[in-house]
Design a protein that fits this description.
Shape: rod-shaped
Distance between the termini: 81 Å
Largest sheet: 8 strands, antiparallel
Number of strands: 8
Number of helices: 3
Oligomer: single chain
Strand content: 15-25%
């Protein structure tokens, strides 16, 4: 090989040695940005799926005291997931006992069971499957007592202030 080839190879090696850390930093920033964007997209798609689920209510066609017995029976089968609250509601646990709060409220057709508030973890609410499970358990317990249940009105929620870097608590839209 002649001298110009050695010179070009030497310059290329020198460029890689000097430019390598800059190239690595740029690649790391691009990868982190792409990962963050993918995470935000995933959380947004999950939110679109779970908000209607939380908005689904259940009407127990019975007076409040009977409805409370039915809900208590349904929740008692999984007390860790559905802890009773001192205020008469029920929690749905993902990490904490009050991640989602369920209330029984009067309804013209009987008693309505609804989600009052829920918390996000990892950018979106995690307790929607538990809420579906609780509704199914309530319907089953009501059926065992020959009490009719039906889907109630759909509710909507508003996202509150951030509790940490990316998670918030949602409340009923009044």
């Amino acid at each position: 090989m002649d001298n110009p080839t050695y010179l070009l190879l030497g310059l290329l090696v020198l460029a890689l040695i000097i430019g390598g850390p800059f190239l690595k930093g740029w690649a790391n920033r691009k990868a982190a940005s792409a990962g963050e964007n993918a995470g935000k997209k995933f959380a947004a798609s999950q939110l679109v799926k779970v908000l209607p689920e939380f908005g689904t209510t259940l009407i127990i066609h019975a007076p409040e005291h009977s409805a409370r017995e039915i809900v208590a029976e349904a929740a008692a089968k999984k007390p860790k997931d559905f802890p009773a609250r001192a205020d008469g509601g029920y929690g749905i646990r993902f990490a904490e006992a009050d991640d989602t709060i369920v209330r029984l409220v009067p309804d013209p057709a009987g008693t309505r069971v609804q989600v009052e508030t829920f918390r996000e973890y990892m950018g979106f609410p995690q307790t929607a499957p538990f809420w579906t499970d609780l509704r199914e358990r309530i319907a089953s317990a009501a059926g065992a007592r020959d009490t009719a249940v039906s889907e109630g009105p759909r509710l909507e929620y508003l996202r509150g202030a951030l509790l940490d870097a990316r998670n918030a608590r949602w409340t009923l839209d009044a």
